Amino acid sequence: MKSLSIASGKGGVGKTSFVISLALALQELSQKVLIFDADLGLANVDIMLGLSPKFDIRYVLNAQLQLKDIILDTEYGFSIIPAGSGVSELTQLNTAQKLILKSQMEEAFKPFDFLLFDISAGINDNVLFFSNLAEERIVLVTPEPTSMADAYAYLKVAYRRCRIKEFHLIVNMVRDDAEGKKIYQQLLYVSEKFLPELKISLLGILPYDECVKKAIRSQIPFVKYCPDAKISTRIKEIAFKMLNRKKMQHNKYLTEFLERFSQL
Ligand SMILES: Nc1ncnc2c1ncn2[C@@H]1O[C@H](COP(=O)(O)OP(=O)(O)O)[C@@H](O)[C@H]1O
Ligand SMILES: [Mg+2]
Q: Which of 46, 117, 207, 220 has the most neighbouring CB atoms within 10 Å?
């Protein structure tokens, strides 16, 4: 199993739409995928898919159900762990709640090839907790200066507090590839200057496309809604890259995952 977290610092930059379409693209490569909606208290994944889950993470944190029991299969073939909506006590997990999750994760995640954590906005404790659980981290940024500032803040906090050094960057909502590369260079320039130990690779550039908004309104992943759009081709390329990385790193992963578990 390979786990990825998708964070951004700033909200509204396209994380959830990206995660859902990446899940479908990976599923189309015959991978069993689980999305963990880690935006606790502000569930968006189920809404974007037009689902009304009966159970969500609250049942696990209240010890009513096991994590594996709330996994919901979708019509697209991938599965989700719903976050639960409108519950402010979830926005900051306490130590006991983290222990519940940690003790049940291994069993719940076992059947899957890919685990995608859709991380909430901000740089709070939950954001770091879930980023730390993942094997690899994706940071999503748009050309807006506020998005770049918040992505940088996330990188800084993840490095300073959790010693996370490697990140993959996705630049979303660009006019063209040149703009995407420029944003990557700018972020790289700042991080090399102030956080020289960080390694940031460019994983993908996604164009601005109205079809993403239409897909959300129709509650369908955009790779399905507009399969021939450039943004959908790009998602499929990213899925392919991640699958190859998974194959390369298969053995290294299990030991590292268990090590990280014991450190949290
Ligand atoms: N590539 C894109 N082109 C156009 N609009 C986009 C793109 N990516 C995301 N959006 C829009 O941005 C908004 C926020 O997306 P969402 O996935 O909910 O972001 P987040 O999870 O980061 O809060 C949505 O209205 C979505 O349609
Ligand atoms: Mg979201």
A: 117
CB 165 within 8 A of CB 199: yes
**Domain range annotation of the chain:** 2-263
* Ligand 2 centroid – CA 241 distance (Å): 23
Quickly name the fold that domain 2-263 has.
Answer: Rossmann fold (3.40.50)
Half-sphere exposure of 36 (CA within 13 A, CB side): 26
3-state helix, strand, coil in the chain (%, to 5): 50, 20, 30
CA of 258 to the centre of ligand 2 (A): 28
Ligand closest to the CA atom of residue 205: 1
In the block, residue with structure tokens 């010890």? 63
In tens, the pLDDT along 89-138 reads: 777 899 999 999 999 999 999 999 999 999 999 999 999 999 999 999 99
Which residue CA neighbors atom 26 of ligand 1 most closely? 213
